[in-house]
Amino acid sequence: MSVSNPTLITFVIYIAAMVLIGFMAYRSTNNLSDYILGGRSLGSVVTALSAGASDMSGWLLMGLPGAIYMSGLSESWIAIGLIVGAYLNWLFVAGRLRVQTEHNGDALTLPDYFSSRFEDKSGLLRIISAVVILVFFTIYCASGIVAGARLFESTFGMSYETALWAGAAATIAYTFVGGFLAVSWTDTVQATLMIFALLLTPIIVLLATGGVDTTFLAIEAQNPDNFNMLKNTTFIGIISLMGWGLGYFGQPHILARFMAADSVKSIAKARRISMTWMILCLGGTVAVGFFGIAYFSAHPEVAGPVTENHERVFIELAKLLFNPWIAGVLLSAILAAVMSTLSCQLLVCSSALTEDFYKTFLRKNASQVELVWVGRAMVLLVALIAIAMAANPENRVLGLVSYAWAGFGAAFGPVVLISVLWKGMTRNGALAGILVGAITVIVWKHFSLFGLYEIIPGFIFASLAIYFVSKLGAPTTGMLQRFDAAEADYNLNK
């Protein structure tokens, strides 16, 4: 194993710091609410950066730069779609979901919220939504583990199998120990590290390739269509890339950050911080992939690893252009992106298994200490399944993420969005929305219909199902009263 000592030392220090934060959070974790939602105590800065970091997984520094490197600016439609979707999610869902979950049984998880919001006594809504979380999040967790494995494999020359376990171990450790607070505090550190890496790297690549004019000429010489936003695209292709933005309304790990905010008043400030961070990070990501075209066309002798796997473009640029100590910090940013998202996903899966299955159906009177330890055991279980799924070295990060993102966006997005905006929604409407959204994504993905990203038909069909099925019944008086009280609370405090 060829190890660059400064890079290895940087990694070890970084991972040790994250695990230390986990142990600090352990001391503040007294019950299941603390473990799952941090006792609803997050301020605006932590809410903003944690939401951003939990969203932007390894694909931010691997999948997206790789796509830009291969295809040019035509792949940046995905970034535009994400920015629009994230902003609308902060604007319409964040504050309302914060008060709705509090007014509906102080819900700790999305299945818990759906069950209380729609007075579902049968438990069917809770079970189906928890199953959707477990299926799609296990795929999502696998994408994070693949990204971590790629990082350790290319940085330290490990075999893929060894890198798989090395990449997952640190994240599992601090999530297991510290729960939501550990995840949120480490997310804040990781978000800072990610933006530092994504602002610094494009600048250094520009300098290495001779400045803006020289770089742009080199990119144009490689292929003039690299600048063409419409290169090899169709109307359906652009809509598919923009459609990624719809996914935000249904991502449980992002919505959990809104639910954990200390108050509705924190949301507006958090939105401004989070959107600024996101725009800068996505701009940096596009620039890394785009300027990488110029660098590797000028230095074909070192382009081998990127030619073999274009998702390594950020990793190779960091190793080639920076002092090993700085490279260690920059490569830690990939680990930060992977760890921040993977930890959130493990925790959401754990909360679904603990709160929505174990406590609800097996041990209604379980003590808080018991529930916290069951939650920790579930983190390990889901992690092991995700590692098994990630064992295929041919896995690509962006492909795994796109499937899971579509699954959540279509199954939960319309239900969450409509449930906080329309008081006429019913329990059967919510059930129809989740089932139609999830099934549409699976079927559409399988048959690859019209080349359209499966989240778009899934979102549309689920929304229609919610509306028409809700119109067949009527919400109860209790549902209407709680909705009105939550909406009044939101308007008073926003």
Automatic annotation (TrEMBL):
UniProt entry keywords in alphabetical sequence: Amino-acid transport, Cell inner membrane, Cell membrane, Ion transport, Membrane, Sodium, Sodium transport, Symport, Transmembrane, Transmembrane helix, Transport
Domain of life, source organism: Bacteria
Reaction it catalyzes: L-proline(in) + Na(+)(in) = L-proline(out) + Na(+)(out)
Membrane topology: Multi-pass membrane protein
Record localization: Cell inner membrane; Cell membrane
Gene Ontology MF: a single term: sodium ion binding
Listed transmembrane segments: 6-26, 76-94, 124-152, 164-183, 195-219, 234-256, 277-298, 325-350, 371-391, 403-422, 429-449, 455-474
Main location (coarse class): membrane
A GO CC annotation given for this chain: plasma membrane
A GO biological process held by the record: proline transport
Functional description taken from the UniProt entry: Catalyzes the sodium-dependent uptake of extracellular L-proline.
Family per similarity comment: Belongs to the sodium:solute symporter (SSF) (TC 2.A.21) family.
Stated name of the protein: Sodium/proline symporter
Gene label: putP
